[in-house]
TrEMBL record, chain A:
InterPro entries named in the record: ModA, ModA/WtpA
Protein name as it appears in the record: Molybdate ABC transporter substrate-binding protein
Family listed: Belongs to the bacterial solute-binding protein ModA family.
PROSITE patterns assigned: PROKAR_LIPOPROTEIN (PS51257)
Annotated gene: modA
Keyword vocabulary terms for this entry: Metal-binding, Molybdenum, Signal
UniProtKB/TrEMBL annotation, chain B:
Top-level taxon: Bacteria
Molecular function terms, GO-annotated: molybdate ion transmembrane transporter activity
Protein name, as recorded: Molybdenum transport system permease
Keywords: Cell membrane, Membrane, Molybdenum, Transmembrane, Transmembrane helix, Transport
Keyword Nucleotidyltransferase recorded: no
GO CC terms: plasma membrane
Species of the source: Micromonospora carbonacea
Length: 263, 273
């Protein structure tokens, strides 16, 4: 219900924005393919970008009626492997510079990656916080089950950094292969807590509560995005990346709980 | 599927009489199945193979895989053989439905099986909540949970094999045993089981091989933790996140074990003329 309302509100705001743009733009119709932005764009993006990018994709398609955006969301590292194995994609957005590096190292990026957002960890707990988790140290209490991301994926690497910064040594019950997997275990009530990105906790706010912890400031993830060398539709790919970096893209990302990149 | 085919005294069609047009798709089909395996062999980092195999994580995952697959097979034997017997020997209303239900895990995506297991045996599941509260037993994130996930996916293989063997077996031996005074249990253990032993063995091996390869239900229900729930397929998936070569090595180990199993089984269920 709330999602539907939000969507309607967004669509309304969007129609208005489009109308205004149309008035201001005069004869030049940006959506009619005058800028060459048309056709399919395939974007491989970190699982934590699912909600924000899905919304951005809708907005992008509305702004460029000839273009369609298709997303593949998964763990950043798995996506990087797919890109390097020649997956047919136009854009790659990772949840950390470390998972972007294999792609740039292999020469599969068309440009230098641009940082477009930052994300911070929170402790996600089932609604009502049955495990009474208030701080990172509570996660080591006996009987408290914790899910982490595997350290091979960015949320796991960030969790490891944050735990080290806090001097907390904990044994999780599972190391999930991406952040959504860790969050799902919280939603199901199978674990009492998981370290996930704030944006993921925000997206699942109806089912999980988020507990902020100060040490998360020591493990902030920068999100890089790049147009791929193998892109079949480089014009639209560049337009999408530009859209993500634009004011409107930044607003959508902020609404999902992301922070703007460091100036 | 697994039942040893009855020796058919049919005359064989000599190869040169077969339509030539069939050989092309047949060859392509074979290549399609074998090429990926060849790809694995071609890309394997043979030079560093020994060191990679000796890496502690590999042996831990392999040991856990062998242990849980064996546990799952034992569980399937204990529950699946009686189930197959009931399906083959007892007439009851709804038997077709039960038989269909038994084979559902064969076609169900394993991830769905994992979700379903969570909803029943999870901490907030139908039975799991009770297990946790009264017995203090939680199954997700435990090795027992892995066994459960593997058994769920692998049991149909055993049931189908054993049921097929039971149907093919001559029921007159059982009747003879009964007329000679053997009780039902004695008949089952002394006549029926030995009669279908080859079918049970073939089903058990197939069940074991399927359990060894289980991924989706395991990662969904039991999670992923080295030494406790991280089996070989999970290790392969996670290795792929960072190190393609490590993933290839792990895959190679699984491939070797699987091929060895199937080669050992060859006479049982792919008997050719």
């Amino acid at each position: 219900m709330t999602a539907a309302t939000t969507r309607t509100a967004l669509a309304g705001a969007f129609a208005l924005a489009l109308a205004l743009a149309g008035c201001a733009g005069g004869a030049d119709q940006p959506g009619e393919g005058g800028d060459g932005v048309r056709g399919p764009v395939t974007v491989l993006a970190a699982a934590s970008l699912t909600e924000a990018f899905t919304r951005l994709g809708d907005e992008f398609e509305a702004a460029h009626p000839g273009a369609t955006v298709t997303f593949g969301f998964a763990g950043s590292a798995a996506l990087a492997t797919q890109v390097n194995q020649g997956a047919p994609a136009d854009v790659f957005a990772a949840a950390s510079p470390a998972t972007m590096r294999p792609v740039t190292d292999a020469g599969n990026a068309a440009d230098a990656p641009a940082t477009f957002a930052r994300n911070q960890l929170v402790i996600a707990v089932p609604e009502g916080n049955p495990g009474r988790v208030g701080a990172l140290a509570d996660l080591t209490r006996p009987g408290v089950k914790v899910a982490l991301c595997a350290e091979q994926v960015p949320c796991g690497a960030a969790a490891r950094t944050a735990l080290a910064a806090a001097g907390v040594a904990l044994t999780p019950v599972t190391l999930e292969s991406d952040v959504k997997g860790a969050l799902a275990k919280v939603r199901l009530g199978e674990v009492d807590a998981a370290l996930v990105y704030r944006t993921d906790a925000t997206a699942a706010a109806s089912q999980v509560d988020a507990v902020e912890f100060p040490e998360s400031a020591r493990a902030v993830n920068d999100y890089p995005i790049v147009v791929l060398r193998q892109a079949g539709n480089p014009t639209a790919a560049r337009a999408f990346v530009a859209y993500v970096l634009s004011e409107r893209g930044r607003a959508a990302l902020a609404a999902a709980g992301f922070q703007p990149p460091r100036a | 599927m697994v039942r040893p085919p009855a020796p058919a005294p049919r005359r064989r069609v000599p190869g040169r009489q077969a339509p030539l047009a069939l050989f092309v798709p047949a060859g392509l089909g074979l290549a399609f199945l074998v090429l990926p395996l060849a790809g694995l062999l071609a890309r394997a980092p043979w030079a560093t193979l020994p060191q990679r195999l000796a890496a502690p994580g590999v042996l831990t995952a392999l040991r856990l895989s062998l242990l849980t697959a064996t546990g799952a097979t034992l569980l399937c034997l204990v529950l699946g053989v009686p189930l197959a017997w009931v399906l083959a020997r007892v007439r009851f209303p709804g038997r077709r439905l039960v038989r269909a239900l038994v084979t559902v895990p064969l076609v169900l995506p394993p991830v769905v099986g994992g979700v379903a297991l969570l909803l029943v045996f999870g901490r907030r599941g139908l039975l799991g909540g009770w297990l946790d509260a009264t017995l203090g037993v939680t199954l997700p994130f435990t090795t027992a949970g892995v066994v459960l996930a593997e058994a769920f996916v692998a049991m149909p293989f055993l049931v189908i094999a054993v049921e097929g063997a039971l149907r093919a077996a001559d029921a007159r031996y059982e009747e003879a045993a009964a007329t000679l005074g053997a009780g039902r249990w004695a008949t089952f253990t002394h006549v029926t089981l030995p009669l279908v032993a080859p079918g049970v063995a073939a089903g058990a091996v197939l069940c074991w091989a399927r359990a060894l390869g289980e991924f989706g239900a395991t990662i969904t229900f039991a999670g992923n933790f080295p030494g406790r729930t991280q089996t070989m397929p999970l290790a392969v998936y996670l290795a792929l996140e960072t190190d393609l070569e490590a993933a290839i090595v792990l895959s190679l180990v699984l491939l070797t074990v699987s091929v060895a199993i199937l080669a050992g089984l060859r006479d049982r269920w792919v008997t050719g003329p």
